[in-house]
Design goal:
The protein is α+β, with helices and mostly antiparallel strands and about 180 residues long. It contains four helices and ten strands. InterPro entries: Fe-S_Maturation_MIP18, FSCA_dom_sf, MIP18-like, PaaD-like, Zn_ribbon_PaaD.
């Protein structure tokens, strides 16, 4: 059995007809938080490409890093294996896949909401493909909603975020970069 990207929703999760083991694995994976953005799970981020149950119930989890040089990828893979072990899947295989490359469009709607609630401006849908060629888009302040914002630094608290300031409420905030 395999659970993959729900193409119509743009989010990852178990599909209809997936077995109990695969569903339990997805629940365990929802507890693995990104170490650099701890308000999001690896499922919310769309880093889990799929969960497959093979012979004997052995699981294979396909993990996609947010970018190929992400320093947290090894730790995330370890935490995924630990969560699966704690959920009763001690021999789960975690495989890193880099193609196709991860995109911010894979962040779940709940993940986008959690970013905003934590003071991080989420990336707009469909922005990943436009990021390299489109003119700079106005980023809305996650605190007051104003689009009267400015970039302070192309790099925020992590490499995947930029630092902005809202000219309306004067608060600084990170924005998740479009990838």
């Amino acid at each position: 059995m395999i659970a993959d990207l729900a193409a119509d929703q743009g989010v990852w999760g178990p599909g209809p007809g997936d077995g109990a083991a695969v569903g339990a694995a997805w629940e365990a994976l929802r507890t693995v938080m990104d170490p650099e953005i701890p308000v999001l799970s690896v499922v919310d981020l769309g880093m889990i490409r799929g969960v497959e149950a093979g012979e004997g119930g052995r699981l294979r989890v396909r993990l996609s890093p947010t970018y190929s040089g992400c320093p947290a990828t090894g730790i995330i893979a370890l935490e995924v294996a630990r969560a699966l072990d704690a959920a009763g899947f001690p021999n789960a295989e975690v495989v890193t896949e880099v193609a196709p490359p991860w995109t911010t469009d894979w962040i779940s709607p709940a993940g986008l909401d959690r970013l905003r609630e934590s003071g991080i401006a989420p990336p707009p849908r469909g922005a990943g493909k436009r990021a390299l060629v489109a003119p700079e888009e106005r980023i809305a302040c996650p605190r007051c909603g104003s689009t009267d914002t400015e970039v302070i630094s192309a790099f925020g608290s992590t490499a995947c975020k930029a630092l902005h300031r809202c000219r309306s409420c004067l608060e600084p905030f990170d924005s998740f970069k479009c990838i």
